[in-house]
Amino acid sequence: PQSLQAKLGLAIGYKRAGKIDEAWNAYQQVIAQDPNNQLALKTVGLLGTYKPQWQPGGIRALTSLLQQTPNDLEARNLRALLFFYQGRQAEAVGDYRMVLASNPTPENLLNAAQAYTYAGDATKAVELFNRYRGTGKPIVGDAAVAYGKALRENGDAAGSVRVLEAQLQRSGSLDRTAIETRKELAVAYLANQQPDRAVATLQPLQGRPDAVLPLARSLNDIRKRSTNAALTQQVATLYRQALAANPNPSPSLVKEVADVFSGLPNGEQTALQLYRQLVAQQPNDKSLLVRQLALENKLGLLSRSDIRQRLSAALQPLPSDPVQLQQLGFALAEISTPDPEFLPIYQSLLQSRADVPMLYFRVAQIYLQLGDMVNARQALAGYTATPMGSRDLAHQLLAAEIERREGNLDASARRYQALIKSKPDRADIMDASLQGFAGLLRQQKRYEDALVVYDQLFQRNPQSLNLQLGRTVIAYQAKRISEAEAKAVLENWLGTQPATNTPPELYSLVEALPLYPERETLYTYLAEVEPGNIPMQLRVVEAIAQRNPAQARARVRQLIARLPQNENSADLQAQLARAAGDLSLAGKIYENILAQQPDNLTALAALGGIRFEQQRFDAAENVYA
């Protein structure tokens, strides 16, 4: 009974006889006695492809084998396939990279193409699919579904429709593959400007228990491209049903649901609960902890110092494993308002070639917060140089904001108008384009024009409380409503919304209204939430200066110390000093600016104003002259 050879012979016999359950158990006994038995480890990996419940065991066996023989491409290909089945696409891609580097078979190409598709690298996926097609073999079944998805995400919506329609015609019944085909085809129709066909394609999936998850995924994709608020509830309900139908859901499914709920209105609490569950199950996965901390911060459950401390602990040291590093990069890239404190971490991830293009975008945002337009443009160029960045219209939004901050308002306006005219199929891009353009018109004091743009936004999102807040700002500045009416809207918001709900429109309204000393706590909280928001930092300094000028000057010194000491931040430093009543410091800063840039009209006007406040009228007259 203890003979290893006898156990191995029995396992081999069971496998040859087609008794896979007995073979699985027999090989487990071999591994229990000899954990490094390469034949048993590889065979368990192969058997792992036979049944879903055996996949994790197959991955463990192949991981043990690859620790002994890292160049075993057959084992690596098997593990990549199991990772793919488990929904662990980043890890699948990590293995497929090595397989593809060594004369891959057509089957390797096809499997890798599917993994790259679901890992989010559509450009590489299409390249691999085309290499496979070059062998003369057709792409059908689940592979055709992935091919259609990759084509759409790579910008070829019409090609995606053709591939998926052909696959649907090959389906004789509404089986699993047909369900997945309809799911992808609906999104392809929407991307191809055929919304009616998208809805009709999904109709046969309604009410089918086996179609709950595909339907949820498709509707969620459509939701992102639509202003139909009813889709949000449908998506949430379907994903809850998917979890309820799986008493022991896989970590990949739980993470998928958490990721979706984190992007749904009022879905953050559910997402946080799921992330906490995942972190408890996988405490070594730093990417999950980062997602949890980001949500806790968003919900106001952590102070800024707490989130910085816990993020620092989670991010240092960075993992050495390339797959873990990439997953961590994806998690950080999901944080839409990155903290400049962690700029070195973002840069380290980019230098490590973690292959997360969105990190370039976040770095550009950080430099924008710091007022460093040169590096912001450079980071944004890094993003647009990637296949993902070249397709993502969000880079146009950031470029428009950089131009606005540089004072090139005409170029910024043209960019926003071009985006709006192109009618992007993503609702968030269209909404952000309209909001950005309205903000630009506000800056130009074209309030009536800004209201027209805001009315377009309202037509798209009639239930949005944030837009009501934003419209109040413009109406107040256009003198359509009084200060008392605008203040009443602010008071109503503060009385009905949680303190953690701080949209950009709230900042705009607070900044547009006069200083209210009794609201110093609000100003301080908003400045803490967005430390890079200089107008709000100015408002805090102004509030403090009214009751304690010395404290205001001390705060300004702290803020100036945090700013990069370059010409880009000099104007901000001067504004802060002036808000604190430190006219001497503000004047010196503007003099330094003018020594470098004699024709800087903004600095000249500001210095002239300071000289008037100092009652140095002759000096003011000389400046204006």
UniProtKB/TrEMBL annotation:
Signal peptide: none annotated. Keywords: Repeat, TPR repeat. It comes from the Bacteria. TPR repeats lie at residues 4-37. Gene3D superfamilies: Tetratricopeptide repeat domain (1.25.40.10). InterPro entries: TPR-like_helical_dom_sf, TPR_rpt, Ycf3/AcsC/BcsC/TPR_MFPF. SUPFAM superfamilies: TPR-like. PANTHER family: CELLULOSE SYNTHASE OPERON PROTEIN C (PTHR44943), TPR REPEAT-CONTAINING PROTEIN MJ0263 (PTHR44943:SF8). This is Tetratricopeptide repeat protein. The lineage of its organism: Bacteria, Bacillati, Cyanobacteriota, Cyanophyceae, Nostocales.
